[in-house]
C-alpha cells in the first residue's frame, strides 16, 4: 500500500502489541551467547522504603550495565505473586529493579522469589519498616549466583503501560520465607498484572 503523505494525520499508530508481563517458554527462546553479563553497582543505603499504594517500593541509588549500556537505578518494588511466568509457572513473588538511561530508555531487571530461606534484604526492610531514616541493605544478596537471564522488549506493567521497556528476567529464583511473603501481602494482597500475549516478539536467553 502506498503511503498517503498528504494526510499523515490519518496514519495508524500501532501500540499495545508488546505488553508485559508474559510467560517465558524455554522451548521457544533464542540462544543469545553474545549478550553481556549483567553488571550491577547498587548502593547499600536505602533513602526510603514505603508502600507506594501498590505494595513495597524502595528508593535506592545505583547503576547497572545492561547489554553494554549504563542505566541508573530509580527504585525497586515487589509483586505478589510473580507477574512473569517461567514455563507456565507462577512464583510467590517477583522484584523489579527499575532503571533509566540518560536518553530515557527504561530497563527492568526481574528476579523471582520462591518460598524457602528468609531473604536478607527483605529482612532489613521489615526491621526498619516503621522507623524513619535511612538504613543499609546489601542488594547484591538479591541477585542469584547464576547470571543466566531472559531478555525481551515489553512494557511497564502499570499505567501508562508504556512500551519499549527492556526486560531482563533472571532465570534462577531466590527465596523468601512465608513470614516475609505475608509482610509483602499485608501491604498489597495481590498486585500482578494479567499475562499478555507474546505476539511476534523474540525472547532471548543469555546462558
Ligand atoms: Zn513491577
From TrEMBL:
Region (Disordered): 1-20
Cofactors required: Zn(2+)
Pfam families: Carb_anhydrase (PF00194)
CDD domains reported in the protein's UniProt record: alpha_CA_prokaryotic_like
Transmembrane regions: none
Known catalytic reactions: hydrogencarbonate + H(+) = CO2 + H2O
Keywords on record: Lyase, Metal-binding, Zinc
Record bears the keyword Transmembrane helix: no
EC number: 4.2.1.1
Keyword Metal-binding: yes
Ranges for domain Alpha-carbonic anhydrase: 1-207
GO molecular function: carbonate dehydratase activity; zinc ion binding
UniProt record similarity statement: Belongs to the alpha-carbonic anhydrase family.
Functional note: Reversible hydration of carbon dioxide.
Protein name from the UniProt record: Carbonic anhydrase
Natural source organism: Weissella muntiaci
